[in-house]
């Protein structure tokens, strides 16, 4: 692997790690591109090539994974969980959850599906994080 590819991978990992740490905070492409030290367009293109999905979709999936864990392991209201994991709209949360999981958050909770989310993610939602 060339040095340039290694540096690019490290830059994308830095941005992805920031997204993992601050998933519940409002994140935008300009800030993530600054973390990776690349332009916004290059960031989106390179992130997708590196991880197989856009930064936006990656963040949505991470938020839904954390929501899945909270739905199974707590009695918190679906609306509270929606906002706790970083969605700003219950409608967007429900639609995105259904697209990724295949059912609504309420149906998922009713089934009591055990989650396959790593335990480090289930505890991460309580940790304060700083973006940047």
List the helices and strands and how they pair.
Elements: H1 3-21, H2 29-36, H3 40-51, H4 55-73, H5 78-84, H6 90-101, H7 105-111, H8 119-124
Task: Write a compact overview of the structure shown.
The chain has 132 residues and is mainly α.
Distance between the termini: 28 Å
Sheet with most strands? none
Q: Low-confidence segments, ≥5 residues, pLDDT <50?
A: 121-132
Which CATH-level-2 architecture of the largest domain? Answer: Orthogonal Bundle
User: What is the CATH T-level topology of the largest domain?
Assistant: Arc Repressor Mutant, subunit A
- Specify the helix fraction band: 55-70%
Task: Report the strand count.
Answer: 0
* Coarse shape: elongated
Give the number of helices. Answer: 8
Description of the structure:
This protein is mostly helical. The chain is 68% helix and 0% strand. The chain has helices at residues 3-21, 29-36, 40-51, 55-73, 78-84, 90-101, 105-111, 119-124. The longest helix has 19 residues, at 3-21. The radius of gyration is 16 Å and the shape is elongated.
């Amino acid at each position: 692997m060339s040095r340039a590819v290694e540096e690019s991978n490290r830059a994308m990992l830095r941005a992805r790690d920031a997204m993992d740490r601050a998933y519940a905070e409002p994140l935008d492409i300009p800030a993530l591109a600054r973390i990776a030290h690349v332009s916004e367009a290059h960031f989106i293109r390179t992130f997708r090539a590196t991880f197989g999905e856009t930064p936006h979709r990656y963040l949505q999936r991470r938020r839904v994974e954390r929501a899945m864990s909270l739905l199974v392991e707590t009695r918190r209201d679906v609306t509270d969980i929606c906002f706790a994991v970083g969605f700003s709209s219950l409608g967007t949360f429900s639609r995105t959850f259904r697209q990724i999981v295949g059912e609504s958050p309420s149906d998922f909770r009713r089934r009591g599906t055990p989650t396959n989310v790593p335990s480090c993610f289930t505890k991460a939602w309580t940790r304060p994080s700083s973006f940047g």
